[in-house]
């Protein structure tokens, strides 16, 4: 009984995270400015990390946690580096 | 999956559903809101509340399954809570500085 409840709740959460990935991907492709694209990339990283956490709950495997931690780390490094580049690139490119 | 007690499975399932809904609302707001300054706020919901709910559910489930407290999901939560404002501040600074040069930016015109 409780395994069934958790299975369907995890499935619903995975569906929501995947739809969120789709929304962020549309914004990544369509976004009018470069900041929108960086923000969408950040959202994609967070949604992928949450998907991995829920998959780790579902399969009861501890490896997913390490992958999620690495994704959170690289997401922060990537989006802050891109934002820093946008912050300084304005001097060269008007 | 070994059987969890029902009093733990229902709150964990509710937390997972809440995390899914909150993250979906945040990502949909990223798609739907009009200007960048509004869009900036939407994904932070998934970043804070979604990660918090998933970490709480994972803590409850793993602690009951292994009969000892498992708290390592909170490492991700702590890291996200520390780094999300840094990224937001850098992005907002760059957006302000890039929009200052061109007053007819599409974000301001809408």
Shape of chain B: elongated
Structural class of chain A: mainly alpha
Instruction: Count structural domains of chain A.
Output: 1
Number of strands of chain A: 0
Q: What portion of residues of chain A is helical?
A: over 70%
* Secondary-structure element string of chain A: HHH
Mass-distribution shape of chain A? elongated
**What portion of the residues of chain B fall into strands of 2 or more residues?**
under 5%
Distance between the termini of chain B: 52 Å
Distance between the ends of chain A: 61 Å
Radius of gyration of CA atoms of chain A, rounded to a whole number? 17 Å
- Given the structure, what is the number of helices of chain A? 3
Oligomerization status of the protein chains = heterodimer
The count of β-strands of chain B is: 0
Write a structural description.
By secondary structure, chain A is mainly alpha-helical. Chain A has one domain. Chain A is built from 3 helices and no strands. The longest helix of chain A is centred in the last third of the chain and has 30 residues. Chain B is mainly α and 110 residues long. Chain B has one domain. Helices cover 80% and strands 0% of the residues of chain B. Chain B has 5 helices and no strands. The longest helix of chain B has 29 residues. Chain B is elongated and about 60 Å long. The model of chain B has no long low-confidence stretch (mean pLDDT 84). Chains A and B meet through α1, α2 and α3 of A and α1, α3 and α4 of B.
């Amino acid at each position: 009984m409780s395994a069934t409840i958790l299975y369907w709740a995890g499935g619903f959460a995975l569906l929501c995270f995947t739809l969120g990935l789709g929304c962020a991907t549309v914004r990544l492709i369509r976004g009018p400015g470069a900041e929108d694209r960086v923000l969408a990339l950040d959202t994609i990283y967070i949604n992928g990390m949450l998907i991995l956490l829920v998959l780790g709950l579902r399969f009861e495997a501890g490896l997913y946690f390490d992958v999620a931690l690495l994704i959170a780390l690289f997401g922060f490094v990537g989006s802050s580096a891109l934002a820093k580049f946008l912050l300084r690139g304005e001097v060269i490119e008007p | 999956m070994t059987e969890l007690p029902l009093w733990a499975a229902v709150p964990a399932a509710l937390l997972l559903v809440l995390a899914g809904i909150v993250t979906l609302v945040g990502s949909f707001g990223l798609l739907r809101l009009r200007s960048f300054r509004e869009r900036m706020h939407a994904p932070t919901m998934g970043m804070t509340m979604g990660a918090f709910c998933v970490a709480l559910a994972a803590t409850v489930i793993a602690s009951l399954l292994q009969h000892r407290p498992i708290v390592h999901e909170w490492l991700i939560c702590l890291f996200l809570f520390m780094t999300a404002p840094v990224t937001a501040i850098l992005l907002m600074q760059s957006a302000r500085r890039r929009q200052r040069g061109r007053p007819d930016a599409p974000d301001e015109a809408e």
